[in-house]
Amino acid sequence: MALSACSTLESDKVDYRSTARAPSLDVPPDLTQLSKETRYTVVGGAVSASSLKTSKDATTKSTVAAVELGDVRIERSGNQRWLVVNRPAEKLWDPVRDFWQENGFLLAMDQVDLGIMETDWAENRAKIPMDAIRNALGKLLDSFYSTPERDKFRTRLERNANGSTEIFISHRGMVEVYTSDRKDQTIWQPRAADPELEAEFLRRLMVKLGVSQEQAKNLVASSITKQVATVASNNGVPVLQLDDSFDRAWRRVGLALDRTGFTVEDRDRKQGVYFVRYVELTPDNSEAGFFSKLFSSSSKNKDATKFQISVQSVAEKSTVTVLDIKGAPESSATAQRILKVLADDIR
């Protein structure tokens, strides 16, 4: 089991179906807004696999592994992976949207001007055991079977300096647990993001963009030395320290914010600041009212506190700091918890 956690999921272990027939989730504005110079409008256009170039040799950097095939490459830093595609973002939006629909998801968020799309909550039907009864009845009673887990995925497209597009896929999961020994009541609780699920969908997206099944599997499996993110103190202010240049630290922090459910309302890459809303979890680490939010559109969070997440770098070292709404450094316990959450995800 421990060894299997280090490899990507087998494709037959993923079979998603949305929990709703239409995008009914009321999604708060937890969108990472692109800076003004990177906004774009989709002009359409199909992506042809024949446009791919011949394979290039894999290249490895000291802190980020980059493996390229044609105009698609995958980069990895720690347990985070993302794609870099040598095509403009407006040429990728439609294929990426089609990709999620082909994999059984409905889109609850489809914001081309922000470069963000997010799926509805969905169930992985491949996790339901195929016992003798289900084999005998086939799909007749299929709707009576369910799992206590739901997943959703956010895809973020960003232009980089050389005109290519970076594609990030982040996972969020919930699990239904009993709240009493009699097992007559349940609540939904967040569960840890699954980097291997993210890697599996990156692999599938590579295939969608023209890479063969075997080549995509080999590229995603490429690994590097694990990096460590550490929480320290600087004159009484908690900080997160990364052995990364600004570009890499910016990517890793942004993906960690997406994974851990922060509401990213805006961002300013030039200043190195994410503008976020943070909500404290309940004492049992559950998200109040999640079940109603999962299947309805009536819930809004009114108790969020706004912060700024600052990423500042010198050479190959970066420091992440939590600032208050006015831009002053935060030294509160909440700031420490936010950095601890980010560090645990980036590790």
From TrEMBL:
- Annotated InterPro entries: BamC_C, NlpB/DapX
- Which Pfam families does this UniProt record tie to the protein? Lipoprotein_18 (PF06804)
* Protein name per its UniProtKB record: Outer membrane protein assembly factor BamC
Organism annotation: Rhodoferax aquaticus
Give the encoding gene's name.
bamC
